[in-house]
Amino acid sequence: MRPEAYYPPCIMYRHIGLISIMVFLLSASISMAQGSSGAWQSASDLATSRPETIRPATEILGPLPGLTRAFIVGNSPPAIVVALPADASALSGTRWLELINELANRQDPDASVLFLTLDEEDGPVFEDIEPGASPWKTGGVMRTLAELHVSLVLVMDMTEGASSLRLDSAAYRRLSPLDAVKAVRQAFAEADVPIAWLPVTSFFAKAGLTRGNDHLEPWLAAELPAVALGGDLRLSGESVSTSEERLGAAVARLARLKPQDDKREDADVNYLVYPFPGKELTLDDRTLLFLALGFFAAICMSATIRFRAIEATESGNVRSAGVVRESLQSIVIALLASGAAAFAGRAAALIATVVNSENVSVGGSPGQILIFGTRIASFLAAYFAISGYAARAGLLRHTDRATALRASALAFTFLGVVAMVVLPQAAPYAFACALCTMLGTVAGPVSAAFLMLAVALPMPYFLPILAGRHPEIATALLYGSWVGALLQALLAAPFALWLGASLSGGSRLRRGGKPAFFFALGLPIAVLVEAAVLLLQ
User: Fold this and answer.
1) Which candidate, 209, 232, 341, 533, has a CA 20 to 30 Å from the CA of 70?
2) 311-332 burial, b for 16+ CB within 10 Å, e for fewer?
3) Ramachandran region, residue 210 (left: φ > 0; alpha: ψ -120 to 50; beta: rest)
4) 438-460: b (≥16 Cβ within 10 Å) or e
5) Are 193 and 203 contacting, i.e. CB atoms less than 8 angstroms apart?
6) Cβ-proximal residues to 525 (8 Å cutoff; 6+ apart), any chain
7) What is d(CA 114, CA 120) in angstroms, rounded to the nearest whole number?
8) Rounded distance, CA 451 to CA 497, Å?
């Protein structure tokens, strides 16, 4: 008879196998709850009210490095992605989870949101990325989200203590799709959540004068429809819970967007929003292209008609060679004048720094307006001083107003062609200026009227800068790199030639030969005025 403690080997192995299976299942469940990359360790805390609506997102994203937390709220494929950048002034963990819970409580089966956060402590986890690059720029998260065809990426860069929410729709040289911007603004308006949006800053970021929102750059570079939400989650005069409820309602409305298909090249990322007082005029890329082609066709027709008329009445004083020569001369003079104005500005800043022995900034209104006015005056003074002395020395030939205006039109047309590739939003304006200069050959007052209209048209974009609302743009325009100064000179050359032609008679272009000395005195005066403004502000 066998002892009672004796177990057959098969029974003992069976117990060991059952124990191993239980341990394996327990480990697997813990691993799934935590996520493949340490994501959502507090997932059980979230699934309190409606556990079926909150799932770990790793089941569709897979084990992606750099992803610390990923949730899907809803049961349908993700329609939008709410991303929290690692280096952003982020929401606290508690408020972040409360927002997800608030969204889960109001979800419907057709609305789904994917919440993502990044690893802030481990740093780059990819071995093949270049130094200084963000993992989001080269990792697999972007490719995975592109395959999901999400309708919108909402990057939340929330800052405690900000006065209001703001919408950013541009990174360096990139714009958020127009449909994405409209959808966010409409959803927040329907949820009665005030949100500020400044199309002026988006335009200058697209033009490359400012950096825009750096957190948007990797998303837009991956051709994903992304916008950024900044400011404070807590709306003014409301409790945190009420603000989260209203913000959750806005995000829930966005979640009902339909996922995009593969036709991302149809997204409008070359639109223009013109800020009228109290309203906006939005021109999509097709409208801008139509305007650009229409103005270009009108330029060609005007050039043909006016050339024949002038040749019949003025014995061919206007020649193609003279137009090209005058245009190139104006560009050279503008480059020299721009360099002289930039040197005068830096000399003024140096004088102010030496006198005050402190850091000197551009400042705001009214000092900034005076600095801009002084800088424009110094450029014009240098331009006509150089032009006048060159005319005295015989370096510039005599020409008439019509030739000068056509030379200005040629320069504007060249800028318009370049803008069609670099900055399509500015192409219609450049072609319109070219057409106005062609029509201005009729008479000097007509040319002057068109010039004032051309200067007034872009003022809504520059008035906020003059008022001191965007010091980064003002600094880039006034104290930027030599590349920026070169671009400003190319843009200013046809305007300076246009101004000189508008002040001239029909038979001869006034180059400033007689008053050249007084124009030259404008530079040292501008230095002293700008230095005084910097010291007094």
Assistant:
1) 232
2) eeeeeeebeeebbebbbebbbe
3) beta
4) bbbbeebeebbebbeebeeeeee
5) no
6) none
7) 19
8) 11
Tens-of-pLDDT digits for all 537 residues of the chain?
333 333 344 444 344 444 444 443 344 343 333 333 333 333 334 444 454 677 777 666 666 666 667 888 877 777 888 887 765 555 555 566 767 777 777 666 567 888 887 554 443 333 333 444 444 444 567 777 777 778 899 988 766 555 678 899 999 999 999 999 999 999 888 888 888 888 888 998 998 888 888 888 888 888 889 999 887 656 555 565 666 677 778 888 888 787 665 555 567 899 999 988 778 899 999 999 999 999 999 998 887 765 444 443 344 444 556 888 999 999 999 999 999 998 998 898 888 888 875 555 555 556 778 888 899 999 999 999 999 999 888 888 888 888 899 999 999 999 999 999 999 999 999 999 999 999 888 888 889 999 999 999 999 888 888 877 777 788 878 887 778 788 889 999 999 999 999 888 767 888 888 889 999 999 999 999 988 888 887
Distance from the first to the final alpha carbon of the chain: 107
Of the candidates 180, 197, 175, the residue with the CA atom closest to the CA atom of residue 288: 175
Strand boundaries in 237-364, DSSP class E: 272-276, 279-283
DSSP 237: T
Number of Cβ atoms within 10 Å of the Cβ of 122: 14
The answer to whether 496 touches 314, Cβ cutoff 8 Å, is no
Strands 165-168 and 226-231: antiparallel
C-alpha 262: how far from chain center: 25
Q: Which of 178, 192, 160 is nearest to 267 (CA)?
A: 178
Determine the Cα–Cα distance for residues 387 and 93; give it in Å rounded to an integer: 64
d(CA 331, CA 480) in angstroms, rounded, equals 20
Q: Which residue matches tokens 């009210």?
A: 49
Beta-bridge mates of residue 158: 231
Q: What is the chain's percent helix, strand, coil content, to nearest 5?
A: 60, 10, 30
**134 in Cβ contact with 218 (< 8 Å):** yes
Q: How far apart are CA 500 and CA 492, in angstroms?
A: 12
User: Are 511 and 384 a contacting pair, CB within 8 Å?
Assistant: yes
pTM value? Answer: 0.79
Residue 500 CA from chain centroid, whole number:
34
Single-letter amino acid, residue 222: A
* Distance in angstroms (rounded) separating the CA atoms of residues 433 and 537: 36
What residues have CB less than 8 Å from 270, skipping those under 6 apart? 175, 285, 288, 424, 425
Encoded amino acid at 239, one letter = S
